[in-house]
Design goal:
- Among the domains are: 132 residues, IHF-like DNA-binding proteins (HU Protein, Chain A); 86 residues, Alpha-Beta Plaits (2-Layer Sandwich), CATH 3.30.70.
- With 330 residues, it is α+β, with helices and mostly antiparallel strands.
- Helix 2 crosses helix 3.
- It is built from 9 helices and 13 strands.
Length: 330
């Protein structure tokens, strides 16, 4: 006996699409709870089953599940499914109505097309397990109109039959209690005023004592003395015009391609850098101040880009890897 339909039914609880290879796919769609007002019927949420004959490719879901359930190989499971589909097609070709238990029934229409009628007996929505549809009898509500006049008449009738009389209660007068209360209040007020006067006097005395101590206090700072020596730079030290004219001699080469050695905020430091580079054989010089206010020192300037790049590569290897090329007309 082929139990393929049983395995399809079990998979529909867990998956939204179960394909029967070579035949079609069973699809599920969640439907919320429904109430039919005309019949007073209540239906729990469920999965609606539909069929699509266009999806026939084997996705392996049914075959793997069948092979695991019956402890057979995947190839044998595929062959068993094929035999089941062949039997379905043969019965449909002879006009028989095919019933898949718990899933639905198949039949051929007048136009010779395959039709599917889902079963309503099985609910594949696990969340709705144990819920069943039922029909509730209609609820008839009787509306009783109660007005204010009705209540008024009822109250008047009760008052006529059972009148209610209120007797005021007489209390024994005790005049001494009144005087005792007055005395207690007077003592409380007097004590409060006396306490406030005492607090005011205390605050006044404390303030006077504080002022006298403050006037007698002397403050002796214990900070050590700091002697600052300010050295004023001369105009020659700041400008270094003589040194600039010396290091930027007429022998310096010209050009728009400059290999930058550094940029300095203080001009004297820039001049020292130029002298140091000249001592090592470079034709160094100052080329002016950049937009950041820094004095730029170059290893040298070149008129040809190729020569400048070659010199830059050599300087990066032997002198300073931070050197870079500036292209600027001076």
């Amino acid at each position: 006996m082929n139990t393929t339909a049983k395995y399809i039914s079990e998979l529909l609880y867990r998956y939204e699409c179960v394909i029967l290879p070579g035949f079609g796919a069973f699809l599920t769609k969640r439907q919320p709870a429904v109430i039919q007002e005309s019949t007073h019927a209540f239906f729990p949420p469920q999965k609606l089953i539909s069929f699509n004959s266009q999806l026939q490719n084997n996705d392996g879901l049914l075959a793997n599940y069948l092979a695991t359930a019956e402890n057979i190989s995947y190839t044998d499971a595929v062959a068993k499914i094929q035999r089941y589909v062949l039997s379905l097609n043969n019965k449909m070709a002879h006009g028989q109505r095919m019933e898949l238990e718990g899933i639905g029934s198949f039949y051929t229409s007048v136009e010779n097309t395959l039709q599917f009628e889902p079963s309503q007996e099985t609910n594949y929505l696990t969340e709705a397990f144990g819920l069943h549809s039922f029909i509730s009898p209609s609820i008839i509500r009787e509306e009783v109109e109660v007005t204010r006049e009705v209540y008024k008449k009822e109250v008047e009738a009760i008052e006529e039959t059972t009148p209610i009389a209120f007797t005021p209660e007489r209390r024994q007068e005790r005049p001494y209690l009144k005087y005792a209360a007055i005395a207690i209040i007077a003592l409380g007020v007097g004590g409060f005023l006396g306490l406030n006067q005492f607090n005011a006097n205390e605050r006044l005395e404390g303030h006077k004592l504080y002022e006298s101590k403050l006037q007698q206090a002397t403050f002796e700072p214990s900070f050590p003395a700091i002697n600052l020596t300010i050295v004023k730079e001369t105009e020659d030290t700041i400008n270094n015009d003589h040194d600039i004219s010396t290091i930027n001699s007429a022998e310096d080469n010209t050009g728009d391609f400059h290999i930058i050695a550094g940029a300095y905020r203080i001009k004297a430091n820039a001049i020292k850098k130029v002298k140091k580079l000249k001592a090592t054989g470079f034709n160094a010089r100052l080329i002016g101040v950049n937009k950041y206010g820094l004095h730029q020192v170059v290893y040298g300037s070149y008129e040809d880009r190729i020569m400048a790049l070659k010199a830059l590569s050599d300087i990066k290897k032997k002198q300073d890897r931070r050197a870079w090329l500036l292209v600027q007309a001076l």
